[in-house]
Structures
1.
Amino acid sequence: MPVFASNFNGNSLWKGAHLETILPGLLRKLNIPWVRERVQLNDGDFIDIDWLKNSQTKLLFLLHGLEGSSQSQYMKGFAKYFSERGYDVCAMNFRSCSGETNKLLRSYHSGATEDLHEVLTYVLNTNTYTEVYLSGFSLGGNLLLRYLGENKYPIPPQVKRACAFSVPVDLKAGSKQMESPANSLYMAMFLKSLNRKLRIKAEMFPGKIDIRGLVFIRTFHEWDDKYTAPLHGFKGCDDYYQSCSSLFVLNQIKVPTLLVNALNDPFLAESCFPSPNNLGEHLLLETPLYGGHCGFSYRFPNGNYYSEERAFHFFSNKEPFLYV
């Protein structure tokens, strides 16, 4: 499918990659009455999912970004918008992201499609939804695209369409992009959160995790090479990035899917805006000039966001794709 620009003109009150990334998370205040359910996994671990149910036949299934959760502003925004328009909503919290540390040595990562498939299968087996729509953000967007394109698991027939926002489809290049001085604040925040969880795991599993020198790690490349890769069966960070980047399976996606990556997203490298040859016939890439990373706000922080409207219209459209 073609790559095309968007008519989204960004927030009329503030523009700029970092303002559009940071301010929605700081200023948006939504109260979503989530109802939690714990899913027991086949490996003995658990994943918590949060529900906003209205006895609907359509389900929106949400996947958050790195160190996010169902409490992330974009997750709550989507839940509110779609719930008001006739959808049930289920937000999946990745392992150790629901407020409670998971039981196993492993955690979550950008390519843990086995977790997505097991939880989605559970949700469909314990409910009666006839239509399911998937939305993922950043890391969760990569996980979603990887799941749809790798052909490792059968996609349930109830899954009709999918949307992904602000996705580093090339994990290696995205990791490098985050090392830029302009992203130093984000990097420090992510590593602080990841390190806190890692220290808890080190106490849970004495002798299994070497946290010596942890405070000297400054990049995702270092962190993933020392922790993410070995804890999840990869040879190193390069193997992890190669094995889990959705970039390499985008052209195999068979479910109609929209990928929205803003051109001013400070987290995304050039290769995260793939060429038409990489997309395949079922994936559409939209590249608005504005939006930042998981931003896409209009004038008022607590109002509706472009990402929510775009996903809703894409899911509602009966033609192959909806051009704005």
2.
Amino acid sequence: MFRFDWDDDSRAVAELGRDFGRGAAAQEREAADAGAVPAALRRQAEELGILDLMRSEEQGGLGLGALQAGHVVAAIVAEAPTIGTSLLLPEAGAAFGAPQGALFADGGAGALGYRRAAGILLDGDRAAGRIAFAAAPPAPSESWLVAAGPGGDRLVKLASAAVSLTDTPAMGVTAMRRAAVAVDGAAVDQGGFGAAERAALFLGYAPFFHGYGRAALDYARRYAAERKAFGKVIGGFQAIGFLLADVAMEVEAAELLWQEAAWRYGQGEDAWRLAADALRAAKDAAYFAANSCVGILGGHGFVDDHPAERWLRDVETLSALTGNRAALGQAAAQTAQAEEADGVA
């Protein structure tokens, strides 16, 4: 059994993040329409340290563990999904101490976020290759990528001159820069990228899906409690009530699985398989919640007067950026046999 207790500092940071998300919620539509987070909100996030949740204090961050930081991320995204994700996803590489500007991407063909088969190869002190689809910060001064080296996967640091970003259209998370990444230049080897680092990456990604799941569930609940049909609120019909209950169970179960994985990772246990399962469950629950929200709203779910259709698009784009569910399931199953799934770095 795992145990999770907040200390005073973690509780204060969580409340700070929740307050930031609530304040940002009013500008969600503006950010989505403009395709960028308002500059004032980005400055506020930087000043509050929200972009530095998992960096160590020596690196100028807050030094939170995966469990505490993940709760903060989920709280922010649940209040302001588009803005929270656009600000924080490009920084998710901070799980291994990388500075702002970490780039991890899908790489195409069902690859995971750090997949070396995207084409990033390390040869001596140079790295070269391409990533098809990445969550990119607005103007990175340096980038941290996972490359395949002769002795296994390595985390490497590259100067901005060695990385070329080409903006790539996608159907969701329009306020976040999405780019194809071409790498060719000098690379500084930062060390091996093994099971512990992979677990950290998975644990850093899952809370974004938890946030979307919570947002969609809460919106659908409120709509079902207000919308009337045949003289009664639609939440009173069994089909709607049972669907909301199913969504709530999926969202809660996914969060509990992630909490256990994050706690075990924080205790120094080998949490790679559990973290992979937790990310897969988070994606499934977020998609179920967003898709169900669209369905409960009926025809209103497909118009941009409501955020449901935008959240559904966002969840699908996030899945592409962070690796697909089938690949994660394959990775978790094959690791049980001490063998990594084909194509998983």
3.
Amino acid sequence: MRSALLNVMVQAATKAGRSLVKDFGEVENLQVSVKGPADFVSNADRRAEEICFEELKKARPTYSFLGEEGGEVAGSDGQHRWICDPLDGTTNFLHGIPMFACAIALERAGEIVAAVIYNPVMDELFTAEKGGGAWLNDRKRLRVAGRKHLADAVIVTGINSQGRALDVLQLKQLAQVTPAVAGIRRTGSASTDLAWLAAGRFDGYWEAGLKPWDVAPGLLLLREAGGTMTDYAGTTGSVWNGQVIAGNETIQGQLLKIVKAVG
């Protein structure tokens, strides 16, 4: 059974998702602006965030809200904050690739306690609450995959090639990880990566340069599915430092060892 708070989050994500699906069908007509290399913002993106903000604000008017597009709106509560990426996978969306999600997390006193990741095209709803497990469409309990060897593992990552120092480092890491694993994937949506990792579809994940809204929903899903996440130094993963190495305990440790060796 979902809590009242999780129901609010699901309602916001699914309503925003319906808006995204409508715009996805008319993607060629969207007005697109560019806010940075390979980082597009569309009218659909902004509309989805407005829907999330309005739905969440209506249900919990005192909570703060941190969104990718609109930044932070302070609330009077002081303990609770919604963290929202209304369209994670914008570039996929704008190219007609159905790999994107609306992602919402609830932070309480600095800890993520509830999460929703919804792909409206696939109609896959990933949810989690602290201590309540992680679920797909309210029916399937999620568990991370049990593979123990990198040679058998499919690893997902987010690699850019803009020539920035971080991109160069990630490409060096990729060169070392690739021959050690069964396969590498790149979906273009960090929330999807973490949700699919929690569901056992992927075995491991690493990426840097992430924002809190990229990490927060998937962090709780992964932990509730029995997974482990750290930063590149091997310390407990945080939504704020932008680094993620994740998987089951064994795969995460092996992947961490390779990434750390690169630098």
